[in-house]
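Risk register update: the risk of archive-format incompatibility is retired. Evidence:
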Amino acid sequence: MLDAIFKIVIFGDAGCGKTTLTKRFKTDLFISDSQMTIGVDFETKTFEVDGKKVKLMIWDFGGEERFRFILPKYINGAMGAILMYDVTNYPSLAHIDNWLSVINGREDQIPLLLLGGKADLDIIREITFKEGKKIAKVKGFSGFTECSSKTGENVEKSFENLTRIMLNRF
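Archived output:
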């Protein structure tokens, strides 16, 4: 028996790792040849957090600007969200205000994590951890971390953190 079912959305610029993050969380495998998301993909995963059995319905949005118009429709009913950027691509962080404007029109504010992807690519990093954390604080995110879908670092932890926030809120 489930203790909770949560709909969450993952969004951000194209190529920042949203689909590989979702696949890594679901399968614990790194799938390097994932295809660009056209519109939206959907996954589910049931797991345990703090002794509670939770099912996440994960909506992974295509990051190209041409798909942005559908986000407000799909975000309805979401109880949490992850805004993802690529630590090796500064423009993906610079576009955060554009993404926030899409979801900030909602009447109810949902927990929102800022997540820096591709943290394993330190040698070509353009955005420091400190800079990402500062932006998350200034913009009022519910939390911040970095992860690597390739190594698995902080993937499960990111979803667990968002789930804890939702469990405490709803």
